[in-house]
Amino acid sequence: MERKTLDALKNEKDAVILAHYYVDDDVQAAADHVGDSFTLAKLATTIDAKRIVMAGVSFMGETVKILNPDKQVYLPDPKADCPMAHMVTIQQIKEMREKYEDLAVVCYVNSTAEIKANSDYCCTSSNAAKIVGAIESKNIFFIPDGNLGRNIEKFFPEKHFINNQGCCPVHDGITPDLIKQLKKRYPDAAILAHPECRPEVLDLVDYKGSTKGMIEAVKDLNKDLNIIITEEGLRYELDKTYPDKTFIFPEMICEGMKRVTIDKIIDVLESGKNEVHVDPALAERAKLPLDRMLDICS
Ligand code: 13P
Ligand code: SF4
Known about the structure:
Oligomer: single chain
Largest sheet: 4 strands, parallel
Keywords: 4Fe-4S, Iron, Iron-sulfur, Metal-binding, Pyridine nucleotide biosynthesis, Transferase
Pathway: Cofactor biosynthesis; NAD(+) biosynthesis; quinolinate from iminoaspartate: step 1/1
Order of helices and strands: HEHEHEHEHEHEHEHEHHEHEHEHEHHH
CATH class of the largest domain: Alpha Beta
Bound molecules: 1,3-dihydroxyacetonephosphate, iron/sulfur cluster
Cofactor: [4Fe-4S] cluster
Mean pLDDT: 96
Number of strands: 12
Organism: Peptococcus niger
Protein name: Quinolinate synthase
């Protein structure tokens, strides 16, 4: 279908499209706003339209709905999921709360509404250290991403981190050996990596940070050649922002993000299907850790 159709539909339905940097180029091009997880969560609280289509994976749709209970929020494909969002259980949280009296449960935004509702603080890859720095409790149960927890733990020697075992299958697959090979092959390149990678990988790179952080860091690192250790969808924004630079990505593909297509967006706008529903009582509890994150980072 033509882009004109999508624009007309957006107007007719009073809809705004939000997209994560990992979705396909044509979806990013069609979106009203493209961003990292934190930018999208923050932006979602300021949107004036009646309907929001979240072009991303399901926890992102849930997050937008939790922050906007009165809006109609849609996912182009409800099967677009982040496996890491399910890598911790409520039982684990309960057991940890029983074990440590002074415990803060810090929940990466890549998590289900149920897990958020049982957590104390949310964070994203761009603000995890800032959030932990604002918490008084000594014991931090960092869920579900063990790599992100380990990557920020070193900034807080006074705290006791209990890092969950979950990980992003896309980022966790990157090994220190691969980084060493890339360094050998491209000695003049800057290497930038997402903090969902293992700590041994981040130890070898020039910059570690969220997708948005990486886009900004390319400017400061000032290299013609940049190796980007994250999902390949980020190439679209990098090429747009730095047309004279070269970007190399190892093959990193998030299957969930790749399920989002323009046709599916048109379909949900036309049919009204795939609306995101979160039980209002659960959403109210899940909103608290998200609001705390937004407050700390305001
Ligand atoms: P960002 O916080 O950089 O948007 O990352 C989200 C994500 O899912 C990375 O895999
Ligand atoms: Fe989840 Fe990894 Fe995909 Fe991000 S890249 S949405 S963490 S599976």
